[in-house]
Specification:
The protein is α+β, with helices and mostly antiparallel strands. Helices cover 32% and strands 25% of the residues. It contains 3 helices and 4 strands, in the order βαββαβα. A 4-stranded antiparallel beta sheet has the order 2-3-1-4, sandwiched between helices.
């Protein structure tokens, strides 16, 4: 079952660009999006434990970070593309 996660991380975990590279290397990540500092939205068929294990095999254990599964009980001020990702578990198609 496909799930959406928040990946929240400290500056000691790495830069946003370094974490983008790591997420792109992860076989357990289907897609991801970011629009806030120190936060990614991650789509995966795997558990938070499995994401953690693959992430630490790539980035190590420096800093602090958290993979937290999102649920339908959520609210906030986010761009429509992010809401689409969290709801549909895929990136919003580009408008032509």
């Amino acid at each position: 079952m496909t799930k959406s996660y928040l990946l929240v991380f400290s500056d000691k975990t790495g830069t946003k660009d370094e974490l983008k590279l790591a997420l792109n290397k992860m076989t357990k990540v289907k897609t991801w999006r970011t629009d806030m500092p120190n936060c990614f939205y991650v789509i995966s068929d795997n558990s938070a434990q499995e994401l953690y294990e693959e992430f630490t095999s790539i980035r190590g254990t420096s800093g602090r970070f958290l993979f937290a599964e999102t649920s339908s009980n959520r609210q906030g001020l986010l761009p429509s593309d992010t809401w689409y990702l969290l709801k549909n578990k895929k990136l919003k198609p580009k408008e032509t």
